[in-house]
Every structure is written in C-alpha cells, then in structure tokens.
C-alpha cells in the first residue's frame, strides 16, 4: 500500500553507487553538450541529460556532471515512483526502471506495457517486456527505424536489474 513517504530502501536506491554506476555505464559521462544524432539532434550531456535549451558545445566539469547525474537519477526515479505500485518494486527494480526511463522518457516508461504488467503484479512478464516483446523479438531497441544492438544490450541489463531477486 502506498504511503505518503517513499520507503527508505527505494529512496536510498536512487542515490546508491549501483544507480550512479549503471547510469554512467549506459550513458557515458560526456563533459560537453552535443547534438545526439540518435535523438533528432537533442542536446545531450553528462550521463544522458537532455535539454532542448542547452547550447551545443558548452563545456562542463566532472563535478558539475556528478551533480547533474544525481539530479537526473532523482528526477526520473521520482517519475517512476509516481507511476508504479511500490509494493511491486525492489531497489534494483527501481534502478532498472529508472535507467529505462532516462533513456526512453518518463512518459514512455510509465505508459509502457512493462510498467503496466509490473503494476498488475506480473513482475517477471513486466521485466521481460523491457527487453523483448511477447513474441521474443527485441523491444525498445530501435532508433531511427534501425535495430541497435547497443540499445538491446542496455535493455537486457535493465531487465536483469528488474528481475533481480525474482523467481524465474
């Protein structure tokens, strides 16, 4: 049952080294704003932070990116918490879903069949839907109409975090 306060273990997960390392592993940590060609030129920086108002070419320090990345995890984690049934989350599941949301968008993640299944208590099915469609084909692994193995690798990692501790 959802209370007014986020359970401590879930809140702590978003600030954990695992969350931070996972974010940087899949997003990198770029110290300059660049136009992401896989996202229609969306200005992107640090570990996947996006902002249409950011100026391409702006340089950032490592310390600035640390703070930006922490904020990104908290912002997207809060969005995931707002659309999920907390009793169906574990710290690792929250991290996996947060990393998915950072890449696919808050609305995209929250409205996905994966989150809907998790909310319905169909944990294994929902976690699997992060990486594969019901027919076994890759899910959320395309950009500009083309399959991207790097995205599928990421989806598999998010799926693994989501399933951590879940009976198969």
TrEMBL record:
The keyword Hydrolase applies. Keywords: Antimicrobial, Bacteriolytic enzyme, Glycosidase, Hydrolase, Signal. Its EC number is 3.2.1.17. Pfam families: Phage_lysozyme (PF00959). The keyword Hydrolase applies. It comes from the Bacteria. GO terms for molecular function: lysozyme activity. It catalyses: Hydrolysis of (1->4)-beta-linkages between N-acetylmuramic acid and N-acetyl-D-glucosamine residues in a peptidoglycan and between N-acetyl-D-glucosamine residues in chitodextrins. One of its GO terms (biological process) is peptidoglycan catabolic process. Residues 1-21 form the signal peptide. It is an enzyme of class 3 (hydrolase). Transmembrane segments: none annotated. Belongs to the glycosyl hydrolase 24 family. This is Lysozyme. It comes from Ectopseudomonas toyotomiensis.
């Amino acid at each position: 049952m959802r209370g007014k306060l986020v359970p401590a273990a879930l809140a702590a997960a978003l600030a954990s080294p695992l969350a931070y390392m996972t974010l940087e592993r899949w997003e990198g940590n770029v110290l300059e704003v660049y136009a992401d060609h896989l996202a229609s030129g969306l200005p992107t920086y640090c570990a996947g932070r996006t902002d249409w108002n950011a100026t391409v070419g702006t340089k950032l320090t490592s310390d600035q990116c640390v703070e930006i990345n922490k904020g990104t995890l908290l912002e997207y984690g809060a969005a995931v918490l707002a659309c999920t049934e907390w009793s169906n989350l574990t710290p690792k599941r929250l991290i996996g879903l947060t990393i998915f949301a950072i890449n696919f968008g808050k609305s995209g993640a929250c409205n996905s069949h994966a989150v809907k299944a998790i909310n319905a208590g169909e944990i294994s099915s929902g976690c699997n839907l992060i990486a594969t469609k019901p027919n076994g084909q890759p899910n959320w692994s395309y950009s500009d109409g083309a399959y991207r193995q790097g995205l599928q690798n990421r989806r598999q990692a998010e799926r693994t975090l989501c399933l951590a501790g879940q009976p198969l």
